[in-house]
């Protein structure tokens, strides 16, 4: 798996006077080895782009391609299997399971995806870099927003996906943590040849991005920084 691509992707919600064009014909590519940042104001289409890229929702028009193969023609169990094996989502609602400890959030991944998850030594390193080793016995209700965010990042990384798609992964973090998370994403992209796509308002992540795009009113353009 090397790249994930949008070709002429449009997404329109509603109809008539309620119609909203969230994405107005997007061409975009996320490549293995790179952290790609997509910046944009609220309502510019960032979450829509990310969820279409990962196959969580379908475009109204256009194609989603994985290494040139059409992802948006996969449906039902085949689409679920593809997402499970290749895509790691870090979503705004961290979606931690309320009655499971942090440790068990990761054990649950092993139950759902029985092969290909990270070896314990590598995962321990990531836990250390995310500063969450001490949180393993805790329940989600006892975590701060920033701690939940870092656990959600760790859970996505644990499944060792080819593509890591993150929606505002650092909103609740202080600047030092943002730097650490940014460095971890970049290390994983480079050393493990993963493609990391982050949609965010958080300009602090620019320091660890390889490509930066701006999304405004459903249109995307690369910015040179
Ligand atoms: N399921 C939906 N039904 C109707 N409109 C939607 C739906 N999802 C998104 N939209 C609209 O599409 C536009 C883009 O929304 P989106 O959530 O992708 O933006 P965003 O850049 O992620 O915003 P934010 O930074 O606030 O999360 C907005 O006008 C939003 O109201």
From TrEMBL:
Alphabetically ordered keywords of this record: ATP-binding, Nucleotide-binding, Transport
Domain ABC transporter: 4-225
Leader sequence residues: none
Pfam families: ABC_tran
GO MF: ATP binding; ATP hydrolysis activity
Stated family: Belongs to the ABC transporter superfamily.
Protein's recorded name: ABC transporter ATP-binding protein
Organism of provenance: Fructobacillus ficulneus
